[in-house]
Amino acid sequence: MGDKPPGFLGSRSWIGCVEASLCLSHFGGPEGRLCHVPRGAGLQGELERLYSHFSGGGGPVMVGGDADARAKALLGVCLGPGTDAYLLILDPHCWGAPRNPKELQAAGWVCWQEVTKAFDSNSFYNLCLTSCNSEKQLHTLD
Predict the structure, then answer these.
(1) Predicted local confidence at residue 8, as pLDDT
(2) How many CB atoms within 10 Å of residue 82?
(3) Distance CA 142, CA 139 (A)
(4) Nearest Cα to Cα of residue 125 among 35, 14, 3, 22
(5) Is 101 exposed, middle or buried (0-12, 13-18, 19+ CB in 10 A)?
(6) Are 94 and 60 in contact (CB under 8 A)?
(7) Radius of gyration of the chain (CA)
């Protein structure tokens, strides 16, 4: 793709959400829309966007940060009364073929977490919201 120095190829360096979005576009994958959240506490203000994304058929949301360098994938949002809100979070390092969802939960690969506890309030976050709604993607799936 040309966005990294030659030494990156074959390395064990990680890419972030911005690079993941570029890869999706370059290799003809689903559309990846980026959303930058300057501080983890700001994720509370993105819950409606995330809810709309998932309720509209959007795919997983990749999440990367700086101070909080633990990658996450968001699979759902649950908005409760008042300010209660939970995110269904998948650890993207999950491997193997689980026999059922309970096995994933028991191993800690996927769980519902309260928004205020799932993110570091001092870290910025980049979200990559994946979608199959682009015209290009719809033709690819035919």
Answers:
(1) 83
(2) 6
(3) 5
(4) 35
(5) exposed
(6) no
(7) 16
Find the helix or strand (DSSP H, E) in which 106 lies: helix 101-106
Asked whether residue 85 carries a pLDDT value surpassing 50, the answer given is yes
| Distance (Å, whole) CA 36 – CA 17 | 10
pLDDT score recorded for residue 133: 55
Q: Which residues pair with 34 in a beta bridge?
A: 128
CB 71 within 8 A of CB 62: yes
Q: Which residues pair with 64 in a beta bridge?
A: 126
Confidence band, pLDDT 50/70/90 cuts, at residue 10: confident
CA distance 66 to 17: 11
Tens digits of per-residue pLDDT, 70-79? 788 999 999 8
pLDDT tens per residue across span 35-46: 999 887 788 889
3-state DSSP call for residue 28?
A: coil
**Is residue 91 scored above 60 in pLDDT?**
yes
